[in-house]
Structure formats: structure tokens, C-alpha cells
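Question (not urgent): is this output format expected?
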Amino acid sequence: MRDLFEDTATAFALKTDSELERAYFLFKLIGNEPLVRIGTAVTNFAIKANLPVERLIRATVFDHFCGGTNEEECLVVANRMFEKGVSTILDYSVEGQQVENQLDYCFEKTMQTLDFVKEKEAIPFAVFKPTGFGRFKLYQKITAGEELTTLEEEEWQRVVNRFNSVCKKAHDLDVALLIDAEESYIQGAADALVEQMMQKYNINKAIVFNTLQTYRWDRLEYLKKIHEHAKSEGYFIGVKVVRGAYMEKENERAEEMGYATPICSSKKATDENFDEVAAYILDHLDRISLFAGTHNENSTYLVMEKMEEKGIEVNDPRVWFGQLYGMSDHISYNLSAKGYNVAKYLPFGPVRDVMPYLIRRAEENTSVAGQTSRELTLLKKERKRRKI
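Got this back:
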């Protein structure tokens, strides 16, 4: 089993020779940290200065990591992936909005996405980010336990209403809904809200999924706590397990403000935490559904082995694997070829609005040891196989 992800013919079956070459070129660039820093600064400047760079961005990094600027463009990509058994999570990747009309627009886009994906077998999930529905500082104030002003109370009720409307619609349409994670110092407010939504709408199965970032050392304890509550109150839990996206920011803030960092002490500790959380869920699959969002091959193998050990069918609807579009195709397509449930996050939105997402992807690939070199090794292997 442990050589499954070496099959590049399966991994890159959907890529044309030119798409394979573009991927190779992009990952070579991403592997150069100084170049990423310079490129990020130049791109941000060009976007803010309204320079005509969208066509270049669209033809390179955008088309590699995103499905398109709208749902219809994404459907073409989704249907193509589904031919190989890989499902799609449509992700309107605009985040961190600060004013009501922007928050309302993100909410409406999520509602429209749910309408768009209903009864589309290739797209069994929708997703949104809490900071797409509410102001960062408001989540932060609630997480810190600070008293809200009357206006802030009214503002928070609008956030609650957005959450509730989207979760109700997902429930009514029977579309699973993944709610992404945020920084630890605003996550408490988001967690409490997602817990309410799970208790309300996960009556027969997991529809609403919270996200646990396992580079936080407290997440297994948190999972056990909500598991006990779900058992006592008779509802189901959906959990997307990831490693995390804000490590440097979290550590810097903790040091600056003089509190203990919420981040695990090492990469090894994070890996062990991820694996323990995933194993705990598989031990309690009667109540908790797992979405294992990982590009880590070892963690993926461990989940597969745990499933086999416990007699869990590869296509059990309570267990999904997920990767980002444009990354780790060797995991996604080889898993789906073996019958596992796999879905790719497929971001979409206006090129300019999605740039923060794309920049984060480049920075994460640069900082995660081995990620880019592994992608390059596999792309080289496939190029050689095709004799490009």
C-alpha cells in the first residue's frame, strides 16, 4: 500500500503536456523563497496600482490553483475531475471582508453556490470562511470575552443569521457544508457558533463541518469535549482536520503579547496531533464524520490503514480525503482510483479578489519543508515517462 502515491500516470492523467509543463514551471518558481517574496510584493503593487496584470496571472498561477472566476467555469473543471472519481468543493475564496455590504455579498455568493451545487453529483460540498460572514475584530472581541456595545450586539446577530441561513439551506438541500478555521484568537467565537449550527442541523448525519487546525495542541481535547456534548444532546459532528494556516502569525503574536503559544512545539508534534485526532474520529465514526484535509502522505496512509484495521469500507460516506486544487494530485487521484472518497477544494472568484488566497498558497508551499520538492520530483517523473 505504501507505494500507492508513486503512480504518476494516474496522478496526472488529466493534465495535458502543456499543463504539466506549466505545473513544473510554477513549482520551480515557488521553490525559490526570495523569488516568492519579490513576486508577492510586485504582484500586490501591480494589483493596487491597477496595472494590467490580470491576464498574466490568469494564464499562470490562477488557472493552476483556481477553477475560474465564476461557478460555470468551475463546473467544467469539476466535471472533468469527476470523470476520475474526484469530487469538488466550490470555494468562493474571498475573505477578510470588513463592511456590511461585502459581508452580505459573500453570504449571498455562498447561498447561490448551494443552489448551484444541489443535485450535482460532482460537487457534494460547499464551504465558507467565518471572516467572510463577519468582521475579524468582532470575532476577536467575543473570543476574548469582552462586552459588546449595542451596535456590536446587532452586528453579531447579523453574523449569526448569516450562519443560520446558510446551514439551514445546506441541510434542506442535503449538501455538506465545510466551515473553515481562523486564527486562534478569533476561533473561539466561530467554534461556539458552529457548535450551535451542528446541534441544530446535524440531527440525522453530519451536514455542518467545523475545521480543527491540529498545529494547535488543544484541538484533541476540544474535540473530545464537543463529542461528549453531541452524545448527550443527540446530534452528529462533522470535522475537517487540517494542520493549519497561520503558524508564524500565531507564534509572533504570542511572543509579542506574552502568552503561551497555542501552536505545537514542533512539526513532529503537529503531525502526531493530526494523526491522533483523525484516529479518534475513526474510533467514534458512529457520531463523528471525518474530512481529512491533508497533503501529508504518511497521515493519509495512516488513515487508510486505520480504516482497513477497523473494517471501514473505502467509500464509507462518513470518511473523506481532501486536497487543494493544483496540489498533491498524486494523493487525490490515486486515492480515488482505489475507491476512496476524495474532494478537491476548487477556489473561484474575480482574479483580483482571489489574490490573497493565491499568495498564501505560494507562501505555504515555500515554507512547508518537502512539499514543493515532492511536487517537482513527481512532475519530473511524469515528464520523463511521457518523454517531454
